[in-house]
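Re: weekly structure request thread

Next one in the queue (76 aa):
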Amino acid sequence: MVLQRSHRYFVNSRSPLEWFIDRYYIKTDKDNGIVNDPNGWFDDPCDLVTAIKRIVYVGVESARIIDGLPAEITDG
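Done, posted below.
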């Protein structure tokens, strides 16, 4: 249920979690060979789970806030 609610808020046609998943991969820059490894961003593997929880929370809370806005603001 929470995950469904988190997918109601979109940024450029994607939920925050979809953006995170789309960007979360190891890649190497062709020009300079620099490796971008998102696994290196976290000191503890549990930090990844914490990041996902926060991203889902942002989606749920954003949808809740938007639902509470007057119709004249959200329509159109």
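The first helix runs from residue 2 to 6. The chain has a mean pLDDT of 85.
Next request, please.
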